[in-house]
Amino acid sequence: METTDLDIQVKTLPESPGVYQYYDKDDRILYVGKAKNLKKRVASYFNKQHDSHRTNVMVKKIKNIKHIVVDSEMDALLLENNLIKKHQPRFNIMLRDDKTYPWLCIKNERFPRVFLTRQVVKDGSEYYGPYPSVRTVKTLMGLIKGLYQLRTCNYDLSQSKIDQGKYKVCLEYHLGNCKGPCEDYQDEEEYLKQIEAIRNIVKGNLKDSLKDFKDQMHALAEEMRFEEAEKVKRKINTLEKYQSKSTVVNPKISNVDVFSIVSDEGYGYVNFLQLSHGAIIRSHTIEMKKKLDETDEQLLELGITEIRQRFDSMSPEIYVPFEVEAGEHVKVSVPKLGDKKAIVDLSTRNAKYFRMERFKQMKIVDPDRHTNRLMAQMKEDLRLNEEPRHIECFDNSNIQGSNPVAACVVFKNGKPSKKDYRKFNIKTVEGPDDFASMEEVVYRRYRRLLEEDEPLPQLVIVDGGKGQLSSGVTALERLGLRGKIPIIGIAKRLEELFYPGDQYPLYLDKKTETLKIIQQLRNEAHRFGITFHRNKRSKNAIGTELEEITGIGEKTSIELLQHFRSITKVKEATFKELEDVIGTSKAGLIYNHYHTQNEN
């Protein structure tokens, strides 16, 4: 069955929370959905027949898939709402009406009220959210009411009206939920301190509120007011358990474009997030092929111009990871902390996911391009003079000092070349000596390649630290190859890479493809060497018992084991059965050895 572009897109989706968008052949948006795991959710549309006719019709129309990666399911839910309202996709029903998610409002008034609302009114009030459900906001409001005494009435508490005695305290005052600012029982400055504490809690900054409550608790305890101190302690416990933070939406970030870039040897990937009224309404990533080894700054500047023109963006401010030129009328900000930095990081993460997907698609559609990119990356990461198209890795195996062997595995163009693997019995070294064994096998391997005029590798890796590397260098030196073949050692514990003559190791990023290839080489050499060692040890252990019989050697032992399959069956065999396999003389030696033992 032929693999389609859509199949490749589904297979290379990340297994992360996010929002996916389906498009038809005319690039019209069909559907926006959210997912805890993008790959599983999107794949579920294509691997079965759906009960709903409408869903089956939609799936047949899908020709392209786009997605946006976010931090959590909650963020995906909020982002889905924003995108559906923005694009009104044909097959979305649930979120098309005028309803919106709830916000928490701190009203712009004297003695501000704090309440839940679905309507954002531009009257100077502060709005936090939106939250994914009313229950979430009610939980937050319950926390706030439990910590602070705020008014719930909608009176105009101007000082003149309070002085005129227009209002009377209500039941909330008598229940202890309000301190009665309507009758001037509470100072405005004290009330505003509570509002500032609430702002910090909503933003996720609990440090100041916790400190204030702990100071109150200690002061009350010193005054022997233990019941009141216990109430404050309960507030501290409630506050410490509370967490509320969204990286997708922040009401203070409005009408802003966010750009970021990740790049490799041949391509740059620029991601664009568009924010409106504090929410992401668009995400788009473009791939840019390098022509003249352009810098990230040059690529990002070109990408910003292209994307803003394509989407006709008039946002007066952009957030970027580093300084760029974006025109006279655009403010360029490079956030260092807080929500603005978090939104730039989110853009970078989307660019990285897009790049990884392109790599996965490349392996399927254009394997040569993938290999060329990987080799260029390894050359740069490992500071080599040429691409390591042919790599060989050595590993010693001498468990408990017995049957010392070594293995050499070969990778060509980043993939195992198993026909070129080689096994070595250690011949010149007595006992378990990793350094001497490494020198022997490296010397034997490349002496043979030189004698047979075979091509030498562009990189040699030895499994071990400075000692094994030094042994490998000595072997190359004996052959006159030092400096002609790059050789490095990899230490297991911290994945350190050692170079000849360099005191300090090289540490590669744990996620780089270069380190993954080296780890794969090391693990494959270890597996191949251990298998060879075990087979040899097992064979020796079985053969030893027969070879201890005077007159019976290794060749006879192998013939018997190949025929009878086990030592037990050799012991139980009749003289005639043994004679048919190894002849009369040797059959007599074995038969008499076991049957005489049994009689004794």
Automatic annotation (TrEMBL):
Intracellular or extracellular location(s): Cytoplasm
Keyword Coiled coil part of the UniProt annotation: yes
GO CC terms of this entry: cytoplasm; excinuclease repair complex
Coiled coil: 203-230
HAMAP family, A to Z: UvrC
NCBIfam families tied to this protein: uvrC
Protein role: The UvrABC repair system catalyzes the recognition and processing of DNA lesions. UvrC both incises the 5' and 3' sides of the lesion. The N-terminal half is responsible for the 3' incision and the C-terminal half is responsible for the 5' incision.
Family: Belongs to the UvrC family.
Description of how the protein assembles with itself and partners: Interacts with UvrB in an incision complex.
Name under which the protein is recorded: UvrABC system protein C
Provenance organism: Psychroflexus aurantiacus
